[in-house]
Write a structure and sequence with these properties.
Elements: E1 2-3, E2 9-14, H1 22-39, E3 48-52, H2 55-62, H3 72-85, E4 88-92, H4 99-108, E5 115-118
Parallel strand pairs: 3-4
Antiparallel strand pairs: 1-2, 2-5
């Protein structure tokens, strides 16, 4: 989910993934969020803050030496997108502060394909 600093939802995306493990699945979610942000034309318009309740994921993004081999190409794509976006911040949030994301993740497991929309 992409939303404004006031909590207004601007984009949704969810669906199944072939990733093995929670953190690898979150990695593909971050990549998708960055792609939507770029394709929606928001680069240079607003600052992007990516919030995650996975300290492992955030460590992979910030520390190339900690990256798993399975997610290497996805992390390279994230690096490229983050460089293109420029004004981006990755931040840790507690699980109970991210209720909507948890609900969308559960809904995504029931879908046959990826759904995304932005406005």
């Amino acid at each position: 989910m992409l939303c404004t600093k006031n909590g207004v939802i601007r984009a949704l995306f969810f669906g199944p993934t072939r990733a093995k493990g929670r953190d690898l699945a979150l990695l593909f979610t971050v990549k998708t969020a960055l792609e939507i942000f770029i394709n929606a034309g928001w680069v240079g318009v607003v600052k992007l803050v990516v919030e995650s309740n996975s300290s492992v994921l955030l460590n992979w993004i910030e520390n190339p030496l900690a990256r798993p081999r399975e997610g290497w190409s996805c992390l390279l794509d994230i690096d490229k997108a983050a460089n293109l976006i420029g004004n981006i911040c990755f931040r840790f949030v507690k699980s109970d502060e991210n209720v909507m994301v948890s609900l969308l993740a559960m809904e995504g497991t029931n879908r046959g394909g990826v759904f995304s929309a932005w406005w």
